[in-house]
What we know:
Number of strands: 15
Number of helices: 16
Structural class: alpha/beta
Amino acid sequence: MSSDSRNLIFILSDEHNRKIAGCYGHPVAKTPNLDRLADQGTLFTSAYCNSPICVPSRASLATGRYVHETGNWDNAIAYTGEPPSWHHVLREENVEVVSIGKLHYRGGDDYGFSEEILPLHVVGGKGDLKGLFRSELPKRDNTGDLAAQAGRGISTYWEYDESIAAAAQNWLTNRAKSDGKPFALFVSFVMPHFPLVARDEYYELYEEFDLHALAHRLNAPPADHPTLKRMADYFDYDRYFDSERRAVALRAYFGMVSRLDEHIGKILETLENAGMRDTSQIIYASDHGDNLGNRGMWGKSVMYEDSVGIPMIISGPDIPQGKVNTTPISLLDIAPTACHCFGIDPADAGYSGRSLIDIANNPDPNRTVMSEYHAAGSDTGQFMVRKGDWKYIVYVNSRPQLFNLRDDPEEIHDLASDPDFASIVSVLDRELHKICDPNAVNARAFADQHQLIELNGGAEGIASTADIPFTPIPATN
């Protein structure tokens, strides 16, 4: 296996709902650089994270393994460098592997990078301990902050992304002056993760648009599933929003997406000016999506497309240009893609994913991918299977859901209980069980979380710890 690429530029954002981009069909979102990247490469319409929450998703991304394989169940069990990452694999093959920005690992371990620049890791190496409680949910006192903070301004995340973009441009400029070995550069932004705050000129890009225009394809009715209702009651951000507050929040979110797009454009311009564009594979993705008020939910943590779906674009040598690819893919596919870029056989590293370079050239619309959730707010394990047009969601000890995403892209009509679709349910359930046993995985996740609760002083000890609505940025000077 080989590729004509010499370098890899992997750009990751945080919490980017894939619908909010011009190249994904939004009539209002201003994302000219992502649109251009899609025109120059292949855009995937059915891309997914492997868990719709930061720490587990990023552990799967790093290792090329499912959450139930790594054991990074939630935001309190961060990646420690084991099992080895694709960064380790590349570094061992004499590739320079550099990260700039958010990682959200434990911190202080060897993650396979030659260098970490401006890294953001979980707080105190422990992360969100309160998120370990799932059977009996802790009280949340800060859910009104999302609506109250939304609007114009500059957040610490906005400033952090400025530093990340500048560092990436400086690194590429300096790298062009050397005749060094091949490199993989992982640039990881935090926007458009909340707080939903955008600088004036970016907020004003969307000021003329009302809620109807902004919420294009984001208006499905509330869910009636018992697990989802419980989660919506726990993550009760939406009760602090009215229509105008929601419009303000979306203008800020869109503004952050547009600023992120500018950062990406500057990085790609620097790569071009450095003479390395034609020999570099470029991948853009996000660690998960954001519900953006759809079904009365904000943030992520559920298996609806707004949350578990992600944008994914690849451009570079050997990649078809201007193509839209419907093959289901996931972040597990990044590890074998990174290997492919440098002529390393992914099978030797034990990856179950598939190179996006191969998929871009040989689409497989009937492929199966899986995501799972074992974290804050959910009283049970959630497992999502996407295969062809179908999406099947299993909630251990609760009723499943089934959606035909071709006919029902907004996931309004749950077909799981319709006898006419029993054969589809059976096929997709078998696909899930080929990957894991949901009941066994669910039991193991709860057991590991209970053990960690006890190691941290039990309910009483953790109750005194601070809430972590979002991880603070590191020092940037």
